[in-house]
Amino acid sequence: MSLSFSFNSQYEVKQYVVILSWQFDSHVKESRNYTVTERILKATNLTAGTVYEVAVWAHATIGDSPTALSHHQTAGAQPERPFLKTRALNQTAVDCSWTVNNTLAQLYGVFYATSFLDLYRSPRQVSTTSLSLTVTVDSDEQYLFLVRAVSPFLGPPSEYSVVKMIPNERLPPRNLHRVRVDKTQATLKWQPPYDAPNSPLTYAIHVRDVIRKEEWDYKLTTRNNTVEYQLKGLEPGGRYSVSVRLRNMSKEAGFTLSTVPLQAPEALKILTEKDHVFLLWKSLAVREKGFNESRGYEVHVYDSVTNQTSYLGNTTETYFRISSLLLGHNYTFSVQARCLLNSQLCGDPALLLYNQLSAGARGEGHTGDVAAVVVPVLFLLLLGVCGGLVALYLRHRRLQNNFTAFANSHYNSRLGSAIFSSGDELGDDDEDAPMISGFSDDVPMVIA
Description:
It is built from 2 helices and 30 strands. By secondary structure, the chain is mainly beta. The chain has 4 domains: 2-73, Sandwich (Immunoglobulin-like); 83-166, Immunoglobulin-like (Sandwich), CATH 2.60.40.10; 176-258, Immunoglobulin-like (Sandwich), CATH 2.60.40; 269-365, Immunoglobulins (Immunoglobulin-like, Sandwich), CATH 2.60.40.
């Protein structure tokens, strides 16, 4: 908006004072002051489609002139207000986010104060180019927030938002997480809302069984900077919602955990008979102390030809009889702890593939086939090892006897002498035959 002024007076005009006023609603009137030494004012950063009241007076050497009032409206359509949302993150941080219908603004200003008077007269301001901002404030205070476009035009402010900062005693625990989860217990870990508490803090732990719709509450008092708590009495394969809060009025921190299901039955085997098969397995009570045999097991089968899974039944024994199997079909049997509460609490299944190749069908889990091959092979290996040991023993005895006979015939232990002759002179009594004799026992000699 460009404004020009004139003032007819014999007195010298030092400056013109211009006040630009406007209203975005019926409650708050805003204004901007200008001091002009020339007779022209170019007002910028105004809002489109807004009526402005212009008040001008001249400041002369003898005083101020009367005020001239006029109204002018800028062209275009006035932008809509932003929609502001605020929430306290902790004791000193407030998350502010807003939405706008137009994106012409390049810079937004977040204004806040502890009272309405300060909010409109001397608010604190933080600027940003995005549509969200985290503002750091003082703790234990109540703040009023509003946001508006500040460049390249001054937009209408949003509705104010009230934020009550969270006191120390109402903060939720920090870093709540699970450390270890077993079948019937879980270890939780968290930190207090603020470091180094001056006195012991009392925590309320609330556990809700999502499947059985049951709830429990526990209490823990400690001043540790890292808190561990063990939940016991949980159910294998269950789902639980856990929340931890400080005192009665605190905000809570929570998460959902699932316990480890029961293990699959071990040693699942299949035994084929003439017109039926038997599934055999070890009892879960051997490994799972909390497993009651009265719960039993349930058996399913998957037919790869028809691509269907069928429920065969349940049993409290560790075997199950199956008949009416079709020739040429491949079956996958599964055995698991019986499911409870509409199949929500189940154990892990043990799987076994069964190939029915002919009328005399065989199962891959049949231990008789394996034994028929492994036992003869092991027996043959054992016979081979024993035969080898006997041959080595006999050879050793033969060599030992030959050496003893040779030593007795060529060495006189009484005289301490040995006689060796060539092969050509064996049996001759010629005294000139070569001889080695008379060496002592303490001077060893090796004859090759």
